[in-house]
Amino acid sequence: MVGSSSSASRTVEPQLTEALATWLPAQRWFGAKGSTVDSVQILEREVLRDEPHFAAEHLLVEVRMTQDGAVVTQTYQVPLGFRTELTDELRPWVLPVAGEVAVFDGLRDPEIIGLYGDAFASGNSTGSIEFNIVDGSSVPSGLPGRVLGAEQSNTSVILGDLLLLKLFRQVPPGVSPDVELHRALAEAGSANVAPLRGWLEAVVGGEPTTLGMIQDFAANSNEGWTAALASVREVFDSPDTPIEELPGDFARDAHRIGAAVAHVHHDLASVLGTVERSVESTAVEEILARISGVARVVPEIAQYIPAATALISRAEASNSTTVQRIHGDLHLGQVLGTPERWLLIDFEGEPAKTLAERKQMDSPLRDVAGMLRSFDYAANHLLVDQPEDPSMRERADLWAARSIAAFFDGYASVAGQDPRDEADLLRAYELDKAVYEVLYEARNRPTWLSLPMRAVERLVS
Ligand SMILES: Nc1ncnc2c1ncn2[C@@H]1O[C@H](COP(=O)(O)OP(=O)(O)O)[C@@H](O)[C@H]1O
Ligand SMILES: O=P(O)(O)O[C@H]1O[C@H](CO)[C@@H](O[C@H]2O[C@H](CO)[C@@H](O)[C@H](O)[C@H]2O)[C@H](O)[C@H]1O
């Protein structure tokens, strides 16, 4: 616990918990959008630095809230900074705490990011937090910290343009699949992930729990989503040029992404195994439960339940399928293009699932379906909120079809099996993802809702 009157981090607990109750739900990474926070309790408060004008603390907090009438509890990781003088860059990140000391999101402060880097370099525990380095790897000390632009489900920061440190925001008790799968892929010698260098953990709810991980930073990389959007823009800007003649045609990249995904699936299967399972006992039946659940928030989706039921029955008729550990939340934002190859990142699985669910074996078709949905998103998202223009829509659909065909070809060229051969099961997984997206967009980006809604309608027809 903290409390020296000569330190910057003297903010008392009731003030902090009250501020966190307001501040947490407004963060991009807060996972329980649409819920009401009832209380915040500080589980751990570890001091990383404590000086008169500057302090840093690592907090684990338990948030109790009400979501759709039910009480939900989630644990979040909240590194905080305390400064008596604030820079302009830190101003947007302050918590509503009155007093002389400003309290802010610690991961926005390069000095605090550097503290985490140094903790890895020394490999020592900091109070209850353990910093682990992968055998054969090392982290240099004194690496300058830098904030990575985009806010996502977690917060990633850069150390010396060499390493990327991702701190998970929501931390369910247990080892993260991101660390687990990166370690398996290292064992397989996978070239399609950024090598894992270390991870940090603490005991949460009585279990060793991953708090974050550190891996090589692919400095010259471009996110698949950004690259795909650039290509789609070109398609719209040159309406009379056949897509295959455009310099930014995405088919070649889509083919390489397909091959990268197949390599990762192969490597995960080789290290962590595969199981033959009846389609009925895969998560396919849960798709209907998902639709019913989403219909409570987005009632328009209920009309598709009968057609979805028919689709699931067709998928179940395909008997058995092979399951294995998979990525679980694959989309164009989860692939990074480097000059040499495409990398897959962020193996945490679907954010809406529990940790135990995310660690279950599943069909690789779920990842393939995630990519198909993403090509559809990339093709159509510039048309959201625009008056319907059939010629633009036709170009968008052509771009998506071309990219998807190339992705399938790339996947099949490595896997030796073509996902198109399991068409009904693949469609069921696509529907599942589209339904997930309906809820995701309703809660996070309501202006994008028409995108997955259009897909649900198409997939069940
Ligand atoms: N190894 C890496 N090298 C370079 N950039 C990366 C790397 N890993 C992730 N990123 C960037 O960081 C962003 C967030 O990473 P991600 O693992 O998807 O985090 P989150 O769990 O918050 O979604 C990605 O969209 C990507 O742009
Ligand atoms: O933040 P995560 O990467 O864990 O994923 C969540 O957010 C994604 C949006 O950032 C969301 O993806 C959806 O939008 C993407 C475009 O922004 C699109 O490429 C995906 O196909 C679409 O699913 C993802 O579903 C959600 O889990």
UniProtKB/TrEMBL annotation:
Q: What Enzyme Commission number(s) does the record list for this chain?
A: 2.7.1.175
Species of provenance:
Rhodococcus ruber
Which residues belong to any copy of the Maltokinase N-terminal cap domain?
Answer: 23-109
Chemical reaction(s) catalysed:
D-maltose + ATP = alpha-maltose 1-phosphate + ADP + H(+)
Which keywords describe this protein according to UniProt?
ATP-binding, Carbohydrate metabolism, Glycogen biosynthesis, Glycogen metabolism, Kinase, Nucleotide-binding, Transferase
Species lineage, top-down?
Answer: Bacteria, Bacillati, Actinomycetota, Actinomycetes, Mycobacteriales
- The organism sits in which domain of life? Bacteria
- InterPro entries, sorted: Kinase-like_dom_sf, Mak_N_cap
Quaternary data: Monomer.
Q: Does the keyword Iron-sulfur apply?
A: no
Statement: the UniProt record of this protein carries the keyword Transferase: yes
What general EC class does the enzyme of this chain belong to? Answer: transferase
Any Pfam family from its record, for instance, is Mak_N_cap
User: Which family does the similarity line name?
Assistant: Belongs to the aminoglycoside phosphotransferase family.
Name the UniProt record assigns to this protein: Maltokinase
Q: In which pathway does it act?
A: Glycan biosynthesis; glycogen biosynthesis
